[in-house]
Amino acid sequence: MTIVDLFKLDGRKALVTGAGRGIGRVMAISLAEAGCDIGIFEKNLADAQNVVAEIKKLGKKAYAVEGDVTKKDEVEKQFAALAKQLGGLDIVINNAGVCIHEAAETTPEEHLDFVVDTDLKGVFYCCQAASKIMIPKKKGSIINIASMSGTVANYPQKQAHYNAAKAGVILLTKCLAIEWVGYNIRVNCISPGYTRTEMTVKLSAPEMIKQWESLTPMKRMADPQELCGAAVYLASDAASFTTGSDIIVDGGYTAM
């Protein structure tokens, strides 16, 4: 088998959460381009259906279901439904996430719950649901989208709850990688740096974005497409000996 063959995903079935826009959308399309049929678990079904249409133009099967990663029963039901539609489940990318910029001393309980429930508990529920499908066949690749914010305390924005949740995702990934290694399920995560998505631009003043770019050695934000190489690698047989890893894609930010 050649190195090119190792990266091929022909015939594999992938599920991506939060794929209606931003990083999730680009990753879903990239996996389809690499050969996967795609299932989308998304809170905004209209956005998800638009991505389904894009993927079908590539000649791949695609399905979307509406769901909230913070609701355990909903996650289990819809993951099982997508696996049935796809005819199996080989790859899961847990991308759905939220962020709020606010000072820790004035963060209300409902905001803390919203961020932690979505960004950490939601990832746990999705990993758990994926494992129930993958364990019986003893094969699978789970990729959690964490953040460089799980490794460093960002500046100047204040987002302690988000950073703590993403740090939890990184350690959760490592723990599950060890727990499920006997089932041949690989669990890894990708930690993006500052990435130009609709959510990031909406949350952030232009002055803050300029400051982020000045603090990043490459002096710019990432395009979501620049994260897809890591996702395809982790999903493929090229990463057959890679589990429990956190791939940081941040333009050198955390290297300083």
Describe the overall structure.
The protein has one domain (13-249): Rossmann fold. The chain has nine helices and seven strands. With 256 residues, the protein is an alpha/beta fold. The protein is globular, with a radius of gyration of 17 Å. A seven-stranded parallel sheet has the order 3-2-1-4-5-6-7, with helices on both faces. 44% of the residues lie in helices and 15% in strands.
Q: Please, how many domains?
A: 1
The CATH homologous superfamily corresponds to NAD(P)-binding Rossmann-like Domain
Rg over CA atoms? 17 Å
- Total helices: the number is 9
For the record, the CATH architecture stands as: 3-Layer(aba) Sandwich
Mean pLDDT: 97
Q: What is the tally of beta strands?
A: 7
CATH fold type: Rossmann fold
CATH C-level name: Alpha Beta
Could you tell me how far the N terminus lies from the C terminus, measured between alpha carbons in angstroms? Answer: 39 Å
Judging from the principal axes of the Cα atoms, what is the shape?
Answer: globular
Indicate the proportion of strand residues: 5-15%
Give start-end ranges of low-pLDDT stretches. Answer: none
Main sheet specs: 7 strands, parallel
Physical arrangement of strands within the biggest beta sheet: 3-2-1-4-5-6-7
Report the structural category: alpha/beta
